[in-house]
Amino acid sequence: MLDAIDTILILTSAAVILVAMTRRLLIAGIAGAWFGLAAVAAASGALDGSPVVLLVLFSVPLIVAAVAWQRPAVRAAWLAMPMSLLIGLNVIRSLGFTFLLLAADGRLSGPFPYSAGWGDVITGVLALPVALAVARGTVSRGLVTAWNAFGLLDLITAVGLGVVSRPGSPVQLLHVGVGSTAITQLPYSLVPTVLVPFFIVTHVVLFAQLRARAPRRVSAITAIPA
User: By the number of CB atoms within 10 A of the CB, which of 3, 75, 89, 138 ranks highest?
Assistant: First the structure.
């Protein structure tokens, strides 16, 4: 039952992201194809062995985003995206409580599920008031920066703990039973291969927006290039 519910939640999250962020058919198609590739890789068992495949699937979207950022048109489009939207999408991360449920069920162990779970819940719960405050122009730049830094650090920490607590991994440092094994299986494998890279990109874009905006008060960016 938990897997079925989590599958629905993860697929719904991906759909929301696609609708909100990919307003062009080509980009939506590429993002959808990547989602399908990540799902097929997990279903085929490619993530069950060496962690290399999982790390590759995690890294490719980040590399593509970094390359795309070098194009002025892409960079301008990302910088013009509504800051309140980028922050608000992180509300989805409130679903990180599922990691806590998996830990309670004995399918995850060690510090990974608690770091990833509570970190995502805190980031997601705070995302809504921060996004609303940005939309109203009533929040300081420092507060948005602090929330953004916490959200990004949460993701980096979760990825690191997931890698070093996976049984059989050549870089396993934490021997804590099942560790992060469940994260290599559907539907949970879609978190590190699809959702986490997306949220890392949003945090980086937010930092770039904050850097580009000098006023002490942050207000919403509303213009989106056609």
Answer: 89
Q: What angle do CA 92, 93, 95 make, to 5 degrees?
A: 85
Residue-wise pLDDT for 116-166, tens only, equals: 999 999 999 999 999 999 988 887 888 999 999 999 999 999 999 988 888
Distance CA 162, CA 11 (A): 22
- Residue 93 DSSP label: G
- Give 7-16 contacts, CB < 8 A, sequence gap 24+: 7/186, 7/187, 9/95, 9/98, 10/95, 10/187, 10/188, 10/190, 10/191, 10/195, 11/187, 13/92, 13/95, 13/195, 14/190, 14/194, 14/195, 16/89, 16/92
Q: What is the CA radius of gyration of the chain?
A: 18
By the 8 A CB rule, do 121 and 94 touch? yes
Structure tokens that stand for 188 in this block:
């949970």
CA 192 distance to own-chain centroid: 8
Give the pTM. Answer: 0.82
Rounded-to-integer distance, Cα 73 and Cα 118, Å: 37
Q: At CB < 8 A and 24+ separation, what contacts does 208-214 make? A: 208/78, 208/79, 209/79, 209/83, 209/86, 210/141, 210/144, 210/145, 210/148, 212/79, 213/141
Cβ atoms < 10 Å from Cβ of 128: 14
